Each structure stands twice: as C-alpha cells, then as structure tokens.
Amino acid sequence: MDHQGNPLTPAEVLQRRRQVVRAVLGVRSALGPQRSCAEAAAPANVALVKYWGKRDEVLNLPVTDSLSVSLGRLGTWMKIAVAERDRLILDGREHSPDTQEYRRMFEFFDLFRGEAGPFLEIVTRNTVPTAAGVASSASAFAAAVRCLDVLMGWGLSEQELSTLARLGSGSACRSLWYGFVHWHRGKRADGLDSHGEWIPVVWPSLRVLLWVVEGGPKGRSSRDAMRHCVTNSPLYSAWAPLVARDLPVALRAIQEQNLRELGPLAEGNALAMHAIMIAARPSVRYWTPATLVALEQVERWREEGLDVWCTMDAGPNLKLLAEESTARELVRRQPDLQLVDPFEQVSVVDSSQPGFQ
Ligand code: PMV
C-alpha cells in the first residue's frame, strides 16, 4: 500500500525493496560476483514469542518484536554458482520457472542483481522434513543471503544479513544464528532497524521435539492468514500488549534457563496467536482433530509429572519444549517425535550431502 492506502504495482514493490537493499549495501551495490560459487547453511527456527502481523507488507516489517530458538541441524544447505542461465535444484529436483519455489527464490535474488545478471544456479537442500510443518523458507532465505555475501564479497555484518533475509520472509531474519534470537520490530519506515539479535545464552539441556500429527501440504499461507487477522480479528488489538508482557518474561526465563517459566509462556503465546486466528471473521483454523488429541496428550504428560510444553505455528503440528532427560522419555512413549538439539551446529559446508552435484 502507498501512503493513500492504494496497492503498489509489482514494479513499485520491487523498487521499494531494492531501495532497502541499496541502503544496506551502500557502495557495494555496484559489485559483481567476486567468486564463481559459494555455499552456506542456516538453521530453521521456531518462535517462542510469535511474529503475527505486519506493519509493512512489502518490507515484512512486524507489528511486534518476536523471539525464537533455532532447530540446530534442521535447516537449509545452499550452494549458488554463476551460470549460463538461472536454475533451481531443490532437494535433488530441478524446478521449472513456473513453480512457486522458483519464482519466490529468484524474485529474492533479483533484489540483488540488475538486468545484466549474473545468472545463478542454485542447489539447495532442506533437512527439515517437508511434512514437519516447520517453515523451511526462513532457513532458505538466511542461507541465500549468506551465499550472496560470500559470492559478492560484501563482508556484511550478521545484522545486515538479517535485515536482507527479512525481505525474503520475515522469520528468516531469525535464522542467521544458532540458539535464541530476538527480532526487534524497529521503528524506521525503511526497516533498517528491524533485524535479529543473537542472545548469548547456551542452554545445553534444552530440546525441541517435532510432532507431526498431520502430514500433507499446509493450507493457507501464514502471510495471507496474518493479513486477514490484522484487519478481521476482533482479538488482534490484544496481540501487541500481550507480546509486550510476554517478551521480557521470556528473555529472563532464557537467561535463567528456567523451562518452568519459559514453557508455559511459549505455549500460552502460541495459543493466543491461534485464538486470534480462530476469532477472525471468517475464522482461520489450522488445527485438526489430531492437533487437539496431541494437545490433550501434552497436558496428560504434564499431569504425570513430565515438564513438557508445546508451541504451534501456522499449521496443525506441534513443537514440544523439554529438557533432555524428559525429551528422551517422551520419545520412548511417542516414538514418532523428532528430537532436536537447538544448539547443534552444522559445519558450513558439506558438499557430500545428497543434492550437491
Ligand atoms: O516469516 P513467515 O512469513 O513464514 O511467518 C512466520 C509466522 C509464524 O511462524 C506463525 C510465527 C513466527 O514467529 O515464526
């Protein structure tokens, strides 16, 4: 939307986004590739205090701050190389230019190159299981900016890379780091102060468990659902005040490594986000009967004395938070849980991974 509330044309959208890229890159905007190829990895992340609602749709600027933890080894490996023509090979399969994945990826790369190219071959592999309901776009755009930084020889700071990744998808700005990340909403109209900040806490016993209760493709995109909720949910006005209360408590719980404080807070925050969706007119509902069965199971485990809490995003699946010993007991009871150490880092490049030619 422009200042009068009129929708921007695609050319105007591209121009606004390119202005931000130029502001971040400065004189480096003029640089061409400094090498022939580059490789990078980035972890997926799950929000403990959610991002729900944009104050600027074009630049993915959020209404509130948010807070996430990374998913360690689950994320994206990417390799980009200067080529004769654009190509996208995703999870070992070449995607044609009319696929959504191709368009989304190259619309992003187009922010950084002119008419003269360079053309790029992108080979990318997600280690997030596709049915896990964990967004792989966040790690993909974070890996993409890391690759570009090396290919173009920019030498940008982590925060600058986070600002650029946000233009691909909002939550991507939290995927530049392992562990906990605080995304500051920022106040500037150009969003240069809206980026992730790494929280220097390593909590070695913390685990995330992915619980896929419903495979299959996700329904409505989070972008679309967010937009709908901001204008059509009578509960949306409660969101920013809730985040303002939750965020400092979550930050303290992380510093103290106190799961009994962080767990209920993260669960309550996710449920509040879903309450906003459910109350929207018309309603947005990502839950299925299997989601409710799983939520009840989490409650039962707690009644039996296990310290486990859950969070959910724009989908029917759950992510559980527990300390390591509890997490192992949960896997024993529910073997389809996938256990993740948020702090497990992958070496930047592993060209032997399937999908790399
Ligand atoms: O960055 P997006 O557009 O994929 O939005 C992510 C939204 C949620 O996953 C629901 C919440 C969050 O903070 O990650």
Question: How is this fold's topology laid out?
Answer:
Elements: H1 10-25, E1 37-49, E2 54-56, E3 61-62, E4 66-83, E5 87-90, E6 93-95, H2 100-109, E7 119-126, H3 137-152, H4 158-166, E8 180-183, E9 196-198, E10 206-211, H5 222-232, H6 239-256, H7 259-279, H8 289-303, E11 309-311, E12 318-323, H9 324-333, E13 338-340
Parallel strand pairs: 5-7
Antiparallel strand pairs: 1-4, 2-3, 4-7, 4-8, 5-6, 8-9, 10-12, 10-13, 11-12
Helix pairs in contact: 3-4, 6-7
Bound molecules: (3R)-3-hydroxy-3-methyl-5-(phosphonooxy)pentanoic acid.
Description of the molecule:
The protein has 357 residues and is α+β, with helices and mostly antiparallel strands. 35% of the residues lie in helices and 21% in strands. The chain contains 9 helices and 13 strands. The strands form 3 sheets. Strands 1, 4, 5, 6, 7, 8 and 9 form a 7-stranded mixed beta sheet that branches. A 4-stranded antiparallel beta sheet has the order 11-12-10-13. Helix 6 packs antiparallel against helix 7. The C terminus is likely disordered. (3R)-3-hydroxy-3-methyl-5-(phosphonooxy)pentanoic acid binds next to helix 3 and helix 5.
